[in-house]
Amino acid sequence: MKKPQIPDKRNKYIKIYIDGVLYSRDEAKISVFDSTVQGGDAVWEGIRVYKGGIFMLNDHLNRLIDSAKAMHFDKIPSKESINNAIIKTLKANKMTDEVHLRLTLSRGKKVTSGMSPEWNQYGCSLIVLAEWKKPVYNKNGIKLITSSIRRNTSQCIDSKIHHNNLINNILAKIQANNADVDDAVMLDVEGYVSETNATNIFIVKDKVLYTPFADSCLPGITRKCVINIAKENNIPFKEKRISISELYTADEMFVTGSMGELTKIIEIDKRKLFFTENSSFFKKISVYFNNLTKKRSFLTKI
């Protein structure tokens, strides 16, 4: 068997925070009775660190706690305590830049195996996993396919809850892997574009920026940044239902997310998208976004 390879060797010795204690990578474990193991009963956030500051931390913590409230978690930790756990973890690892945080809050440990939250009598479990990790996508652009796996509708489970039940996303990602592309576009149950398995989608057509309604997709925080950039800089923008054919005929297309920031799409379903000198939206918005990551008002100091 081939020995597992850690993408960034510095992460071999990281410290991971679990419920108030910092553990080495090999020792960081949770109980088999934890709700994350029992049923994926947890919520999470992906957060970036830039040059000594945590980007959009308050927005991420608000969404984490709102998701936990929507899931009816008991004894949800305060924003201050979660913030302190994040700072403690980053300082222990001496991390200040090019870092990605995976923040997980589960319903907690159960007294016995079972589905009912009545068995959760310990309170929530908090995990702070910080890794050195640059944006994961190729800056020259990525390729997509359209997945046959549909994104959750709010009639089943509301995608505004940032929950750990990611099976449909994972199945879509498997399809992308098997097609030898980077990610997969997921449609909603009516056949309209929702998001990819990991990111929100934007297209440009006739000098207008569009993104799908956040009905069957997560209203991402990087997505929110791009929308605000458009509004503050007089860039024509609209949320609308988008069909797959509109992706094929877009003048530009890009995706957004904390893990990969802003990434342009160069191909979807073997159809190439040609960015020309007139394809200025992605370039312009990327500059605005990069400037945001340097502004103190958007960063929480470590």
Protein architecture, described:
The structure is a single chain. The strands form 2 sheets. Strands 7, 8, 9, 10, 11, 12, 13, 14 and 15 form a 9-stranded mixed β-sheet that branches. The protein has a 7-stranded antiparallel β-sheet with strand order 2-1-6-5-3-4-16. It has 2 domains: about 10-130, D-amino Acid Aminotransferase, Chain A, domain 1; about 140-295, D-amino Acid Aminotransferase, Chain A, domain 2 (Alpha-Beta Barrel). The chain is an alpha+beta fold and about 300 residues long. The mean pLDDT is about 95. Helices cover about 25% and strands about 25% of the residues. The radius of gyration is 20 Å and the shape is globular. It contains 7 helices and 16 strands. It has helices at about 35-40, 55-70, 80-95, 165-180, 220-230, 245-250, 280-290, and strands at about 15-20, 20-25, 40-50, 55, 100-105, 125-130, 140-145, 185, 195, 200-205, 210, 235-240, 250-255, 260-270, 270, 300.
Considering DSSP H and I runs of 4 or more, what fraction of the residues is helical? 10-25%
Main beta-sheet annotation: 9 strands, mixed
**CATH fold-type name of the largest domain:** D-amino Acid Aminotransferase, Chain A, domain 2
Number of helices: 7
H/E element order: EEHEEHHEEEHEEEEHEHEEEHE
Explain the layout of strands and helices:
Layout (H helix, E strand, L loop, with lengths): L14 E4 L2 E4 L10 H5 L2 E9 L2 E3 L1 H14 L8 H15 L5 E8 L18 E8 L9 E5 L20 H12 L4 E5 L5 E4 L3 E6 L2 E4 L9 H12 L4 E3 L4 H5 L3 E6 L3 E8 L2 E2 L8 H12 L6 E3 L1
Parallel strand pairs: 7-8, 7-14, 11-12
Antiparallel strand pairs: 1-2, 1-6, 3-4, 3-5, 4-16, 5-6, 8-9, 10-11, 10-13, 13-14, 14-15
